[in-house]
Specification:
This protein has 316 residues and is mainly β. The chain is 7% helix and 40% strand. The strands form 8 sheets. A 5-stranded antiparallel β-sheet has the order 5-14-15-16-17, with no helix packed on it. The chain has a 5-stranded mixed β-sheet with strand order 6-20-8-7-19. A 4-stranded antiparallel β-sheet has the order 9-10-11-18. A hairpin with a 2-residue loop joins strand 7 and strand 8.
Length: 316
């Protein structure tokens, strides 16, 4: 068997990724302690990201502060906004980039707020599956550059962007994506003066004033391989991704008209997409104004998981 060698990317003393430069001649059915014998994706395409299981710690007992007391966010910092009932909460990417998963509950709804810095994908899932509430952690494994989450109840691995379990007792079960909104902190604070914001009091020592990925967002390089490499858009162009009735479509954020509603059809379903540049706000609704779930992501990541995706084009 050939040895597997890794090169680690270290930023600010924190290991954020490893780049495989060798390979094994035979495939183990276990990685980082996770059993992969029933994996629905090629085991050879599951990569160790650098930190071990829970080396990137999920936030399992989140604390929140009133919007008026928040001092650690800049006006243009991005947040994931989620509303359930009468309560709206903001989850700053400045915190999520260090933790990737927040296990939270709002009233009777248990949610998994997940963020993959390598794919730019922020998604909110219902974490009650088949009547059982699961708690999610960061496995330390990646598939197509995207975080593989795991649930602590069954040790199943879950693909964030594929939105389903890819190994373990839960294999094949899907995650329900919930409607959330992505926008700048200044806009969120103005609209939600009584809202709650995820606190930096996470129980972990991290410097939330820094982003541990250097210039990754601004460069075209990838840290891990992806199978599909469509060149419709630049590698890290920001897109708004929608999947409706199995049909995927990407809306290039920079091509969306500023502050204007784009009306479109995905399959038989009419949708409205809007991007406000001043607030960096993405909104997706049906014709009645009901929010629809969407995924903001880098183009390379979206097309890797949706190789047949169509791309919306602006018609002058």
């Amino acid at each position: 068997m050939n040895a597997m060698f890794s090169r680690f990317l270290v930023v600010g003393g924190f290991v954020v990724a490893s780049l495989a430069v060798g390979c094994t001649s035979d495939l183990a059915v276990k990685k980082l302690g996770f059993q992969l014998d029933n994996a629905t994706i090629p085991v050879a395409e599951i990569h160790e990201g650098g930190p071990p299981r829970d080396g990137i710690p999920s936030i399992d007992r989140p604390k929140f502060v009133a919007a008026s007391l928040v001092k650690f966010l800049a006006a243009d910092d991005m947040v994931i906004s989620f509303t359930h009932g009468s309560e709206t909460r903001a989850y700053p990417l400045r915190i999520l980039v260090w933790h990737e998963i927040v296990n939270d509950s709002i009233g009777d709804l248990a949610i998994n707020v997940s963020y993959c810095p390598l794919c730019g994908s922020g998604m909110v899932f219902d974490r009650t599956i088949d009547g059982r509430t699961l708690e999610f952690g960061v496995s330390g494994l990646l598939y197509q550059s995207d975080v593989l989450m795991y649930d602590r109840q069954t040790e199943s691995l879950w693909s964030q962007l594929e939105m389903k379990a890819i190994s373990g007792p839960q294999v094949g079960r899907g995650l329900q994506l919930l409607p959330a909104q992505h926008l700048a902190w200044s806009a969120w604070r103005k609209e939600n003066p009584e809202g709650l914001v995820l606190s930096t009091d996470t129980g972990h020592r991290r410097d939330y004033s820094k982003i541990p990925y250097g210039d990754y967002e601004k460069s075209s390089r990838l840290m891990f391989p992806v199978k599909s490499k469509r060149r419709d858009l630049p590698t890290k162009a920001w897109i708004v991704g929608l999947v409706i009735d199995g049909v995927a479509r990407a809306y290039p954020r920079d091509q969306l008209p500023d502050g204007r509603i784009v009306e479109d059809m995905i399959g038989e379903t009419p949708v409205r997409v809007r991007f406000d540049r001043s607030d960096q706000r993405i909104s997706v609704t049906d014709l009645e104004g009901t929010p629809l779930p969407y995924t903001p992501a880098y183009w390379f990541a979206w097309q890797a998981f949706h190789p047949e995706t169509t791309v919306w084009k602006h018609e002058p």
